[in-house]
Amino acid sequence: MSKLPVVAIIGRPNVGKSTLFNRLVGKKLALVDDRPGVTRDRREGDATLVGVDFRVIDTAGYEDEDAATLPGRMRQQTEAAVAQADVALFMIDARVGVVPLEEEISRWLRGSDTPIVLVANKAEGKAGEAGILESLALGYGDPVQLSAEHGEGMGDLFEALLPYIDREDVEEEPEYGEDDLSAPLKLAIVGRPNAGKSTLINRMLGEERLITGPEAGITRDSIAVDWTWHDEDGEPRAVRLIDTAGMRKRANVQDKLEKLSVADALHAIDFAEVVVLLLDATRGLEAQDLRIASAALEEGRALVVALNKWDVAEHASSLFNGVKAALEEGLSQVKGVPVLTVSAATGKGLDMLIKVAFETREAWSKRIGTGELNRWFEKAVEANPPPAPGGKRIKLRYLTQAKTRPPGFILFGTRVDQLPTSYQRYLINGIRRDLGFGAVPVRLTLRAPKNPFDR
């Protein structure tokens, strides 16, 4: 059995590649803007066209720049995508026609072994007729005429792709239950710009899958990459790594595209199971790091903190203790968040990071039986009875776990609306400490029985 066939979308900047990518995957996954060069890393997604499934890759706009420059590094990602694909869609803008850069792209593609399908985007109406005629000179025959924005021409695109994507030997994706711990670990790497998030993922993968460099804010889209990690027993464990854009303080974010990137990173936190907050050990912990950590915890995600660039950190011991103390003080909703030291440059500490992430997901997915839970609950209430505001006793009846991921509990009793926050925190901290939930966010909902005489 083989994996899904792969379709890469290539072309110069601003011809509509990301719009077509979003159309094929059925979601607005890739950032789209009028300005050229929005996409930088190659982004993958599962697509379906007329009932046929395939994998589609959105690539950066192809530019003729030195390999050491950022556009040059983006071009290398595009070249890697074409080499990986079963077929490449070479997209032009029908309204603009063929430009010299596209003639150069065409020459490069002819040296590739990957089959090419020419696509003329923005072909609706008569404005694109001249550009469509010009495209015949590229030597790929009649282009597929479509409008990615309006969804026109998808049938013609399907017919052109069918010989390359309709395969009988495609394996079906396994289906996982909601709490299935054998499912791939969804692990998002978040942090401020230049913390080393993309470098860290490249080190894990053992390849330059994501664009890195000294420039701050290279990553714009949240990029998900599938990876297999082998644990200490040599067992393969599936991981979906999610790289995100660096998140600066909100007041400093003025550019529309950066706002979209930050929103995309926050969406990636929603999608993740475990969030790794990556800190730059040479800069320590800043207020913005605590804001990012709080955002992850408020969404109910499990959190792990990793100090990157540990190989070049100064005053390591005092730095580590200072970060732990600041986290304890700054993250009042969760105590004891795991803090690890790593180096994306050397790979040190990465195995421990993934191991802790799997253990944290296990705690985040944990379910406690009602009997065991209430035996603990009775002892907790006996050791520290609830207060009696105004001389009226608050009677706590029983506790039940309503959900996992994050763990959510419902506390039943009378006058629970008067139960102080400090007592609720006492119960939550006890659940974490005594029942094996560790430093994952725990939700507690209070519920009183309905009064039949209350109108």
UniProtKB/TrEMBL annotation:
UniProt gene name: der
Xref: Pfam families: KH_dom-like, MMR_HSR1
Record has Nucleotide-binding as a keyword: yes
Annotated GTP 1 binding sites: 11-18, 58-62, 121-124
Residues the entry annotates as binding GTP 2: 191-198, 243-247, 308-311
GO molecular function per UniProt: GTP binding
Listed InterPro entries: G_ENGA, GTP-bd, GTPase_Der, KH_dom-like, KH_dom-like_a/b, P-loop_NTPase, Small_GTP-bd
UniProt xrefs under PROSITE patterns: G_ENGA (PS51712)
Family stated for the protein in its record: Belongs to the TRAFAC class TrmE-Era-EngA-EngB-Septin-like GTPase superfamily. EngA (Der) GTPase family.
Key word Repeat present: yes
Domain of life where this protein originates: Bacteria
Subunit field text: Associates with the 50S ribosomal subunit.
Domain EngA-type G: 5-169, 185-365
GO terms for biological process, alphabetical: ribosome biogenesis
Source organism: Sphingomonas aliaeris
Task performed by this protein: GTPase that plays an essential role in the late steps of ribosome biogenesis.
Protein keywords: GTP-binding, Nucleotide-binding, Repeat, Ribosome biogenesis
Protein name: GTPase Der
